[in-house]
Amino acid sequence: MKLWQKETGSKKEVESFTIGRDPEFDILLAPFDVLGSMAHAKMLSTIGLLTAEENDILQLGLKHIYKEIQEGEFEIAPGVEDVHSQVEFLLTERYGDVGKKLHSGRSRNDQVLVDLKLYYRNAIKEIVDDCTELFDMLITLSENHKNDLMPGYTHTQLAMPSSFGLWFSSFAEGLSEDMGLLKAAFDLANKNPLGSAAGYGSSFPLNRTMTTELLAFGDLHHNVINAQNSRGKTERTLGFAMAGMAGTLNRMASDVCIFMNQHFAFISFPDDLTTGSSIMPHKKNPDVFELIRAKTNQIQAIPNSVALLLTNTTTGYHRDLQLLKEEIFPGIETLKSCLRMTTFMLNSIKVKENILSDSFYKHLFSVEVVNDLVLSGVPFRDAYKRVGLDIESGNFYPDQNKLNHTHEGSIGHLNLKEIQGKMEKSIKKFDFETIDHTIESLLKK
């Protein structure tokens, strides 16, 4: 059954090819399709396309379907094209012709688009929640290990003293900055396209402001063509946001894989969080972080895939856009799993103490010695040369217990409260509480 079908159907080869993987993704859209339909029905009743009684019937039926979805009892029946068809079919089967009236004033184009917007908005909330949990873990680890020194590297060569507090909090602040891109994606997802129909509006006197308020959208796409053209633009922006966060996780995972290496041995994890070898009994492999590294690279490829899918599309809807779900939907789930596993693993991380007391790391303190000379009145260039000559001649013996870093963001001044403030400020901008409250009200009325 198809919403657009008249007397003749498509050949099975065409149908199979064009439907693709949509059924597996449509199940994820099901609750949001119901919410969009509830708002649309309420609006139709205010402009005379549904009676109050018909609206009550549809609201009751849609709430029942929503409950079935939440309880895992909803499925798209064989022969039914998509979630939109399934919902309309159930309403018509259970309540008669009133189910056939629900599609008035909308197209599958704006129906699926509002489903996607609501799905993305909810997915972003879940990403923010998972990211916040990881952020809090990193801040705690940073505070606990602020005095545990470690080497800092440039060009993968020993550079200057660092600390685990500095290392952990670098990723915490990075995640707070990743929120900026995610907020841009959220703002696009939080605009109502309902009422744009196939992209050119409707002759019905639709109240688009009403559906915007009922679904707690922050705004609407006023221009109906632009509403349709936002499909793809929203995914591309969300793809960039996910790629940014994935990049932060990727760098952390890469560091962890190196720091667990026996030549470094800066950190370790319990045996049951590592994997072994079939022939080497000593192995403790960082498989979790290797997979996080690989999966986050897959996520970082999403913006390019989305951009290529959109390359040849002109104004209006194209079936090409269906394939966006194959990039974005799995990417969302992968990002959430990577955030959660990183938090899970870091909860058991063990940090090696007194790393820099080893004379092997004495050259890390060259800048400290140069700076001390400069503070005593020696011109910087002369101090730099003197220390360089001492290193070359083997006469460099710094005090490896002496560090005096006090400026903002340094080893001795991590600014953890300020970084926490950034994160809290970023999260407040999403205003998830208002959305949750409005959707709850829609389901209760």
What is the rounded distance between the termini?
31 Å
CATH topology of the largest domain: Fumarase C, Chain A, domain 2
Uncertain runs are none
Tally the structural domains. Answer: 3
* Spatial order of the strands forming the largest sheet: 1-2
The tally of strands reads 6
Structural class: mainly alpha
CATH hierarchy: architecture of the largest domain: Up-down Bundle
Sheet-strand content, in percent, reads under 5%
Task: Characterize the largest beta sheet: strand count, sense, and whether it forms a barrel.
Answer: 2 strands, antiparallel
Average of per-residue pLDDT values: 94
Rounded Rg: 28 Å
* Helix run count: 16
CATH domain class name of the largest domain: Mainly Alpha
Order of helices and strands: HHHHHHEEHEHEHEHHHEHHHH
| Overall geometry | elongated
Helix amount: 55-70%
CATH superfamily of the largest domain: Fumarase/aspartase (Central domain)
